[in-house]
Design goal:
The complex is a heterodimer of chains A (83) and B (244). Chain A is mostly helical and 83 residues long. Chain A is built from five helices and no strands. In chain A, helix 3 crosses helix 4 (41-57). Chain B has helices at 36-44, 48-69, 73-90, 100-118, 165-168, 171-182, 186-197, 202-209, 213-235. In chain B, helix 2 packs antiparallel against helix 7 (186-197), helix 3 crosses helix 4 (100-118) and helix 7 crosses helix 9. The chains are: A mainly alpha (83), B mainly alpha (244). The interface between A and B is large, with 50 and 75 residues.
Chain lengths: 83, 244
């Protein structure tokens, strides 16, 4: 790490994980972030948990539209396509 | 960069851009949208199966999004129905400058907002102008870090412990995640559902909900941080002060 780059404490890193995973950190902050996790097993574990959480959340399924509302929409569609 | 998450034996049925830092300004593409041009042509021709495809894909999400803005379920259903009629009546003018999904949700949120305002409903997103500047909602309990008088202020005092991979896959774990999401404030819940359950991009979410990219990220971050803490309380009950 360069003498001119301020080190990123763990407590700051946990606030930047989403921005990091979205690729929206500034280049400077991304460098500080990556320099930090290279040397910090705890923050590596933290970021890993966030990734695992995102993958697990992706396995939840979305609620379908209720059948009655769906039927009403189909009636409306037929009205539209015939009108 | 390595990613243990990708080593999990999970069916990764979409390319999750949120797992990958952006490379030279290009985002990885998300799961393919239904072929817009084909669907639009079929809708214009009055093809019911195209309509069914769209309502099965977006109907549940639309209902949920509408419900954030209006007072009850019945009103949300009305708004969704109105939105579809507006979409069908406007389909000849749809030029494909945005995706069909983006267009659909823009119409939906505009209508739901108007309806909610008319009914005097407090909008969950109207209080968000300053989201991100408050800084009073830490992602992790401050007690888990060393204080300002220590030789390493802000370093972990009670660090996270790697999660057991087999437990992560259990149905009960997913139940804990689901329950934690249910308990989030409305706007945070909506953003995490759209981003992490439905797999939308950041831009699609901020566009559909009419919030800035920064606000959407703050909401997502708070949501994920709280859900992670809930999951940690479940998977690592031995860590004291696991709750932020």
């Amino acid at each position: 790490m360069s003498l001119f780059t301020k080190e990123m404490p763990c407590q700051e890193l946990v606030e930047l994980v989403t921005a990091y995973l979205d690729g929206s950190l500034s280049r400077r902050d991304r460098r500080r972030f990556e320099a930090h996790i290279r040397g910090c097993e705890h923050c590596t574990a933290y970021v890993e948990q966030m990734r695992e959480l995102i993958v697990a959340t992706g396995r939840l399924t979305e609620e379908d539209i209720p059948p009655r509302a769906r039927d009403e929409l189909l009636v409306a569609f037929r009205g539209w396509s015939e009108g | 960069m390595t990613s243990l998450a990708l080593d999990l034996p999970l069916p990764l049925n979409r390319e999750d851009a949120s797992l990958m830092p952006r490379v030279r300004g290009k985002r990885r593409t998300m799961r393919p949208e239904p072929q817009d041009a084909g669907l639009v042509a079929r809708l214009r021709a009055g093809d019911e199966s195209a309509f069914v495809e769209l309502i099965d894909r977006y109907g549940g999400t639309m209902l949920r999004v509408a419900q954030m803005y209006v007072r009850d379920r019945a009103t949300a259903e009305e708004v969704v129905q109105e939105t579809w009629l507006a979409v069908l009546n406007g389909i000849d003018r749809f030029e494909g400058r945005s995706s069909l999904k983006t267009w659909l949700f823009r119409i939906l949120t505009n209508r739901a907002k108007t309806r909610g305002e008319r009914d005097g409903r407090m909008l969950p997103f109207s209080a968000l102008a300053g989201a991100g500047e408050e800084g009073d909602e830490p992602s992790v309990d401050p007690d888990r870090f060393l204080g300002p008088d220590s030789p390493h202020p802000g370093a972990w005092a009670a660090p996270p412990i790697a999660w057991p991979q087999d437990k992560l896959l259990e149905g009960e774990t997913l139940g804990v995640i689901e329950m934690a999401i249910d308990q989030l404030p409305e706007a945070q819940r909506e953003v995490i559902l759209l981003r992490d359950v439905d797999g939308w991009t950041a831009m699609e979410v901020s566009d559909a909900l009419g919030i800035t990219d920064g606000n959407q990220r703050v909401l997502l971050h708070r949501a994920r941080s709280k859900v992670r803490a809930a999951l940690e309380r479940y998977l690592n009950p031995e860590i004291a002060g696991g709750a932020p």
